[in-house]
Amino acid sequence: MRVSLFTIAAVLATAASATFSLQELDLRRNRQCLKASNSLQEDATLATFTQLIDHTDPTKGCFEQRYWHNAKIWGGPGYPIFMVNVGEADAEEYAWHLINQRLAYLYGEKLQGAVVLFEHRYYGKPQPLKTMTAETLQYHTVPQSLQDNKRFAQTVKFGFDNCGSANVDKSPWVLIGGSYAGALPAWQSVITPGVFAAHHASSAVIHAIGDFWQFWTPVEQAMPRNFSEGVKLVIKKVDSILSRGDMQEIAAIKKEFGYVSEFYNHMEKGVNNGTLNKGLNEADVVLDVAGNMFANLTQRYWKDFCTDTPCDWEHDKEIEFPSSPTNLGTARSWA
Question: Does the keyword field hold Protease (predicted)?
Answer without folding.
Answer: yes
